[in-house]
Design a protein that fits this description.
- The structure is a homodimer of 445-residue chains.
- Chain A has 445 residues and is of the alpha/beta class.
- Chain A folds into two domains: 162 residues, Aspartate Aminotransferase, domain 1 (Alpha-Beta Complex), CATH 3.90.1150; 268 residues, 3-Layer(aba) Sandwich (Aspartate Aminotransferase, domain 2), CATH 3.40.640.10.
- Chain A has 15 helices and 15 strands.
- Chain A has a seven-stranded mixed sheet, sandwiched between helices. A four-stranded antiparallel sheet of chain A has the order 9-12-15-14, with helices on one face.
- In chain A, strand 3, helix 6 and strand 4 form a beta-alpha-beta unit.
- The longest helix of chain A is centred in the last third of the chain and has 20 residues.
- The model of chain A has no long low-confidence stretch (mean pLDDT 94).
- Chains A and B meet through helix 3, helix 5, helix 6, helix 11 and helix 12 of A and helix 3, helix 5, helix 6, helix 11 and helix 12 of B.
C-alpha cells in the first residue's frame, strides 16, 4: 500500500471518523499521535511525523552518568527537598548568570516535574495573588497545553496573536488596552515560541516588562527552547551575546527552563523555574485564601509545588545539576547538537515551498524567521481541516494552528525533530503526490 | 550542651518564636523539619526525629538496577506515554490481582508522580464530575496534605474523626447523615491510616462502599502503607489473606498506590492509581466545563495528569514496573524488610508508656492497634502545643495531631522510621529528663 492510494486514504478516513469525528483542526496533539499510530499499525506505512515536539537527540553523557551515580548512591529511597537539592539550585543560578546575564539567588531556583508543572504551579499562585486581577494574558500563538492548564484551574485568559503586531510600537499599541482593563494578573509567552518560532526582541520585551510593571502583573517567560534561535551564538558561558529576556525590564518575573529540548532530557520530566528576588519576597494578601503563607515564593514552593507532587525525582535533579554545571564550565556545548534541528528545518521548509505551500509565519520582526524546532505552512485555497486531512492521506502528520491561539486557522504546525535528513527525499515525494491529488480534486477547494 | 539544659531550651524557644510565632500545634511537617534542622545546626545536638514519614530502608535492587538499565537504554531523552509504559501498566494490574484479589484492566492502571499527584489529579476530576456535589468527605484522622490539596483547588471538604465510631454499625450511623446531605462527590481515607494506624475492616469498607454507591460518590482508597498491617501476612502473591478493600463493595473506586513506603522508593516520586472499570468509562456532563472529554478516565489522564506534568519520570516507571513484577513473581518479598518498622514501634511505644505517656489511638475496632509506621501519644494534663514544645526542648521532634483532622488536640504523631533501634536507649533517657522537668514545672500544667 502507498500513501495517496485509495486503500490508504480509506484507512486514514476511517480512523479520522473514529478518533476525531468533529473538526479535525481541533484535534489535540495526543489525538493526532494516537490516530497516526493506529493507521501505521493497520497499514504498515510509516508516516513523516511532524505532530509532536519530541527531542530526537540522545541525552548528554553528563546527565546520564550523574543520574545513574545518584541512584547508586542511594537517592531513590530518600525524599528530595521540595525546593530542590543544593547542587541543582546553585548550578541553576549560575546558569542564569552565565547564559542570560541575570542575577537570581540559588534559593529562588526550584526544580519542577518538567516545565509543565512549573507553569501549573505558577498559574495556581500568580493568578490568585491579587484578587481583583482574574485574567491571564497569553501572548500567542503559543503552547496549547498552557490554555488547557488554565481551563482545568478555572482561570480566565485572553489571547493575542501578535504576529501582525511586531516591533515595540505596534506591540505596545495592541497590549496597552488589555493591561488598562486592570484585570491582568499574569503575562505568559515563550521565546523562541511554539509554534511560530518568533523570537521576541529586547525592545519588545521592554514593552512587555514595562507594561507589566506599571500594571502590577507577573511575567512568565517560558524558555523551553532556550538558546535555539540559531541566528545568534548563545552557546558560550559568560560571553555575549545573551538571549533577550524580560528580566532586564521588570523585577516581577519568573523564568521557566525545561531540560526536555535544551538537553534532550524529556523522558525524566525535569525543569526549573527562577523567580525574581522582588517577586519571591512580595506579599499578596489574596494568597491567604489558598495557601498558608501570603509570601509569593513560599506559597509557590511549599503551597503549590508541595501539593502537586511533593517535589520532583531525586535522581533527575542530580542529572540536571550535572548538565547545567557542565554547560556553566564550558565542558558541555549543549547548543551544538541542537543545530541539527535548524538543518532539518531548512531542508523541510524548502520541500514544502517547492510543492506550492506558503509559510504562515515567515518573518520575525522584519527579519526572515530563524530555522528551528517548528515551522508553519498553509496551502493556497485550503482550510486547516482540509489541509490536515489531505496531508494525513499522504502519510504526513502535523497539528492544526487553530489549537495554538493562532488567528491563522488555515495553517498547520510542523515539528522537525522526528524527521531525519534521510527522510526529506520521501517527504518531497509525498508532497508531490499531495500536489497532484489536490490538483485532481481541485473542484473541492 | 545537653537536651533539657537551659541553654538548649533557650535555643529551641528562640527558633520556635522565629519559625512558628503563633500556635506550635498548627505548624506543618515541613515547618517542624526546618525548625529542628536549624536547632541541630546551632546546638550540635542530634534530635530523635519523629516528625516526618521518611522511609529509612534501602531501595530494592530490582528497582535500582531496572532504573539504571532504562537510563542506559536511552529513556531519558524520550517522553513517556502519559498513561504509562506498557510494562508498568501490566505489572500494576497483576499486582492488584495477586495482592488484593481485584481485577482491574492494565489500561486503567496509570503511573503518577507519587501518590500525591494521583490524589491531586483525582480531586481535579472527581470533585468536579457531578456539579451539584461540591464536597469531599475525609475519613479522618488523615494525611494533612490532602486537605492542603483541596484548599489549593478551592474544593470544600467535611472531615469526620471516626476513632469513636468504629465497627460497621457505628460507622454507618456517623456517615449516613453526611451522605444524605447529597453533596458528597468523593470519599477519601487511607488504610492503614496516617497518623492513627487504624486499619479498616471488611465490614467497615462495605459500609463505605455501599453508602458511596447509593449516593453516587467516588471512593478513593489511599494505600500508601499497603500491606503494612503486620498483624496479618499479606506478603504472598496470589495467596490469602488479602487486605480488605472497598473494591469488593462498590464499582466506583480508585486505589492509590505509592512506591515511597512499600518499596522505600520515595526519592523518585513514583506511584500509580488503579481506576475501576465502571468509573473509568462513566460519563459525567460536569467534566466538560473543565476538560475536553466527559469520560472520567479520559479526563483524569489526558486532562488532569497531562496538564499537571505531562507524565512521570520514564526511568522511575521502569523501576516500579520491575519491583511490581518481582513482587508478583515472588522473587521480591517487599513486606519482610518493612517489619523493622513494627519492631521499632513496639520499643518506642514502650519507652513512651514507661515515661507516663498514654496512647491517643490505642485500639483498632476492638483489637489492640498494630505496630506500624506511626503511633500517637499524649501526656496527662498537657495540651498539644505544650507537649510538642516540651518534647522539642528535650531533643524529640514530632507533629501535632491537630493538623491531621484529629479531634484529639492534645496528642502528637510519632513516626518510627528515622529512629533506629540503637537510639531507643537515648529516647528513654530524654523522656526521663522530660518527665523530671514536667514534674518540676508541674504548676504550669
Amino acid at each position: 500500500m502507498d500513501v495517496g492510494e485509495k486503500s490508504f486514504r480509506d484507512a486514514v478516513d476511517a480512523k479520522i471518523v473514529e478518533t476525531c469525528p468533529s473538526d479535525l483542526s481541533s484535534a489535540s496533539i495526543r489525538e493526532i499521535v494516537s490516530l497516526v499510530g493506529s493507521v501505521e499499525a493497520g497499514t504498515g506505512v510509516e508516516f513523516i511525523r511532524m505532530e509532536m515536539g519530541i527531542p530526537s537527540l540522545p541525552a548528554p553523557t553528563e546527565g546520564v552518568e550523574a543520574e545513574k551515580g545518584a541512584i547508586d548512591a542511594g537517592v531513590a529511597s530518600k525524599y528530595p527537598p521540595i525546593d530542590g537539592i543544593p547542587e541543582l539550585k546553585t548550578a541553576a543560578a549560575e546558569f542564569a548568570k552565565l547564559f542570560l546575564d541575570v542575577e537570581i539567588p540559588s534559593s529562588n531556583c526550584v526544580p519542577t516535574t518538567g516545565a509543565m508543572q512549573a507553569t501549573f504551579a505558577i498559574f495556581m499562585t500568580a493568578c490568585r495573588a491579587d484578587s481583583p486581577k482574574k485574567c491571564v494574558l497569553l501572548i500567542d500563538p503559543g503552547f496549547p497545553v498552557q490554555k488547557q492548564q488554565l481551563e482545568t484551574l478555572g482561570v480566565e485568559y485572553v489571547s493575542v496573536d501578535i504576529y501582525a503586531h511586531r516591533g515595540p510600537e505596534k506591540l505596545k499599541a495592541v497590549l496597552t488596552p488589555i493591561f488598562e482593563r486592570g484585570d491582568i494578573s499574569t503575562v505568559v509567552y515563550s521565546t523562541p515560541n511554539n509554534p511560530a518560532w518568533m523570537c521576541l526582541s529586547d525592545e519588545e520585551l521592554e514593552v512587555i516588562g514595562s507594561l507589566a510593571g506599571e500594571h502590577g502583573a507577573v511575567v512568565v517567560e517560558d524558555l523551553a527552547y532556550f538558546a535555539m534561535d540559531f541566528r545568534c551564538d548563545y552557546s558560550k558561558p559568560g560571553v555575549p551575546p545573551y538571549p533577550p529576556t524580560v528580566a532586564k525590564w521588570t523585577d516581577s518575573y519568573i523564568l521557566v527552563f525545561s531540560a526536555s529540548k535544551m538537553f534532550s532530557y524529556a523522558g525524566q520530566r525535569i525543569g526549573f523555574m527562577a523567580v525574581s528576588p522582588a517577586l519571591f519576597k512580595r506579599r499578596f494578601p489574596g494568597l491567604k485564601r489558598w495557601f498558608s503563607s501570603d509570601e509569593f515564593g513560599h506559597a509557590l514552593v511549599y503551597g503549590a509545588l508541595y501539593a502537586l507532587s511533593s517535589g520532583t525525582s531525586h535522581s533527575a535533579q542530580h542529572a540536571l545539576a550535572a548538565m547545567l554545571a557542565a554547560a556553566n564550565g564550558g565542558q558541555l556545548d549543549f547548543v551544538a547538537p541542537l543545530r541539527e534541528y535548524a538543518r532539518r528545518a531548512a531542508a523541510m521548509k524548502k520541500a514544502f515551498l517547492d510543492a506550492g505551500f506558503e509559510l504562515v509565519y515567515s518573518m520575525d520582526a522584519g527579519e526572515p524567521l530563524a530555522d528551528g524546532f517548528y515551522f508553519t505552512v498553509s496551502y493556497p485555497g485550503m482550510s486547516g481541516d482540509e489541509l490536515l486531512r489531505e496531508l494525513l492521506r499522504h502519510g504526513i502528520s502535523a497539528i492544526s494552528l487553530a489549537i495554538t491561539g493562532s488567528t491563522r486557522r488555515d495553517g498547520i504546525r510542523a515539528c522537525v525533530s522526528l524527521v531525519e535528513m534521510v527522510r526529506v527525499k520521501e517527504l518531497r515525494r509525498r508532497l508531490g503526490l499531495f500536489r497532484e491529488s489536490v490538483g485532481k480534486h481541485c473542484e473541492k477547494y
